[in-house]
Design goal:
mainly alpha, two-stranded antiparallel ribbon, 8 helices, 214 residues
Length: 214
Amino acid sequence: MRQHIAPYLPASATCEDPRWTAHYERLINSMVLFGVKLKIIAKYTGASSRTISQRHKDLIQKTAAQGRIPNSEPKSFTIPKDRVNAEEVLHYSLFASCYNRIESGISEVLNRGWLLVAAYETYLQMTEGMISKLGPGSAAYRLNINKAFGLTTYLSGTKELALKRCNQCGIEHLYLTSAEPEHQECPMCRIARLSKDSHPAITHEVELAKQSTK
């Protein structure tokens, strides 16, 4: 009797198990194409540095991204200080919503590399409408997957960050669990308040954020 293999990658699945080989191969390819740092790919796929480097050459004809695994303070993902940072925090919140929904929707503990890619793909699909709204050549913000990885540490691990719904605009946004939520401003409300001129991206981001966090 053929054993059913889930479409997701559980943390219990090892790269040495031939039943999960195809899943790990797809994960390596996806992480390479998204520009995930070599150390992160190796950590969650078990692939050697040599294998990952060769995959970069084969798929994108580039050298594998080196450097340390991103490590940011939890407060850098919330409490916007200015217009640009508020937009970044909004996108962190959108990604966090995707990440939490996928994680909570599957009963098994997931491979965090697989979860990162699945959430990032969902985030890109969610924000595609914003890019289309602005048109070709626009400078619309998109979250880098390595920055997104830094956020996941505080979502799956320490739980120092959580999502709460704004009473004013209705979106969910990140906040520090160690501080009073009332004192941590919603990034969407900050963007709207600091934007002097009406911009089509602003209105679209509000609607996008509302729809994605319902």
